[in-house]
Amino acid sequence: MRRATDGWHRAARRCGRSPCLSKEPPLLGASYTAELPFDGDFGARAYAVPWEWHAINGRAPGPAFHELSKQRRQRLSAAIRALDAHSAGGSYRVIAEVLFGKKRIPDRAWKTYDLRNRTIRLMQGGITLMRGSYRKLLRPGRRAE
User: How far is Cα 9 from Cα 6, in angstroms, rounded to an integer?
Assistant: First the structure.
């Protein structure tokens, strides 16, 4: 806890700023209420409340709100690689061979093959990231509309 001119703040390492403010010094065993404004950061603040409760009670806070899952990181990486390959003039088939391995790509029926559609979706996702939606990764909890 740190004292400031506007009250007492509890510094939280995971969210980068103090989500908890108390006008009076905190007391052990006292009950507290969380007040959350309905603004653009409501989701992050609401997610921070259980962290506060866990910290006050000496428990581990759990995973950070902004951490991406392994699957999401892999998909973003694949989308950027697909976009780079497409920008360099690679065909969908060549991109799929690089992303998924040449052995998984059939010689025939490529036009209707599942990995072709997946490659196209990844490349389109890369274009969406390039056009500015990558900024949404910096504000956790918000999905592309």
Answer: 9
Q: What is the tens place of the pLDDT at every residue in 61-118?
A: 666 656 677 888 889 889 999 999 999 999 999 999 999 998 888 888 888 888 999 9
Sequential DSSP letters for 35-72: ----STTHHHHHHHHHHHHHHHTT----S-TTPPPHHH
Which helix (H) or strand (E) element contains residue 10?
strand 7-10
State the DSSP code for 130: H
Here the tokens at position 10 are 């509890």
21: helix, strand or coil = strand
DSSP code per residue over 101-112 = -GGGS-SS-GGG
Strands 20-22 and 7-10: antiparallel
* Digit-coded pLDDT (tens) for 6-26: 777 665 554 444 456 666 776
Q: Which amino acid is present at 54? A: H
